[in-house]
Amino acid sequence: MSQESEKGAGRGRPGSLTRESIVREALKIPAEEFSLGRLADSLDVSPQSLYHYFPNKQSIASAMIEEVNRTVPMADRNLPWREYLRSILLGYRGFLKVNDYAFARGLPLNGLSIFRVGGKSNRAMLERFDGFMEVFRRAGLGPEECIEVWIMFQNFIRRSDLHRASQQSLLAGWEELQNDLSEIDEAVVPELQGLRGKPCPDIEEIYQGVVDNIIEGISVRYEIK
Predict the structure, then answer these.
(1) d(Cα 186, Cα 208) in Å, to the nearest integer?
(2) pLDDT 10s per residue in the chain (225 long)?
């Protein structure tokens, strides 16, 4: 018997396995690493047992994205656009700090798939998009401009690692930088020497600063207050 066969031997469909437990575990796997084999290993079941709950990989991915849409806070569409956008971004960071959903941090951005979930219409996504359109239309943007802002916003949401960055990880990197600076000649990196001995920046302040810059950039580009 091969190692692969031995690994899967005896792993059936435990009584504790449910659609919900499958989705929760799947969301902990980074999007670029997601596969039915990886998911089955994480759950300690055979890949075949997953088919009792989901017909294929795409149906699991759809359920995962629907769960993210269900649990990520939805901003109040009655807010002014600046507060609305800030509420979404800060809410998303807060969501990822509480929920270890690696999949949500790397959702693919392929063309107009940003309007759908798993290639299908999704009510939660459409409600978010509709609210987004309403807020920015009220601010004075035309439909095409709203879509442009939505795409840029989605790209930041899905691609930036900053949403999940922790103070601990930043501190570790900062300590490494301090060690590097102490071991290198000052003349080689004169600008960086100004950072020697400085305290580590605060990740929450950095994130809010980035959010403020995004908002200000939209204001300037589209000439809205």
Answers:
(1) 32
(2) 344 443 444 454 555 799 999 998 998 887 778 889 999 999 999 999 999 999 988 888 878 877 877 777 789 999 999 999 999 999 888 888 877 676 655 555 444 455 665 556 677 778 888 999 999 999 999 999 999 999 899 888 877 888 888 999 999 999 999 999 999 998 999 999 999 999 999 999 999 999 999 999 999 999 999
How far is Cα 183 from Cα 10, in angstroms, rounded to an integer? 54
Helix (H, G, I), strand (E, B) or coil at 191: coil
What are the structural domains of the chain?
3-54 (1.10.10), 72-164 (no CATH)
Is the Cβ–Cβ distance between 146 and 137 less than 8 Å?
A: yes
